[in-house]
Please model this.
Amino acid sequence: MQKALRLMNIRLDVAIRDITGRSGINIIKAILAGNRNPEYLASLVDIRTKKSKDEIAKSLCGTWRSELLFELKACLDFYRYFNCSLKECDQIIERLLIEYVPKKPVSIKQETIFKGYNRKKIKNAPRAIFCCFLNISSTDNFGKVI
Model:
């Protein structure tokens, strides 16, 4: 996706940190839907972005070539497909790991919550299965029995 954007002189990677994040995908969807106004595209960026709307709008001015827009759409479709495949693979792995977990419940310490920064809980973290399967806590010293 980034290659197609650069060839159109669109520097989305300069405007925002992660082009596959929420803001980046929203901008790419808007570009593919036909919205090419840099001010409108800059308004789609999350408010927590460090750069100003003017700086982002300057990064989103470019030449809109139809073959590169087609390539961008194909890359976005591939990204979505592989993302769905990874989620499906993670679910299958988690389901298979559950079969090998011992039947007796094992107590697991609550994860420490860091203050000051609102951290999202990782969706692909089968910590309970991992701890039960190996009979260790992932945050403790390696090999320490629960």
Notes: The chain has a mean pLDDT of 81. The chain has two domains: 2-89, 101-146. The longest helix spans residues 66-100.
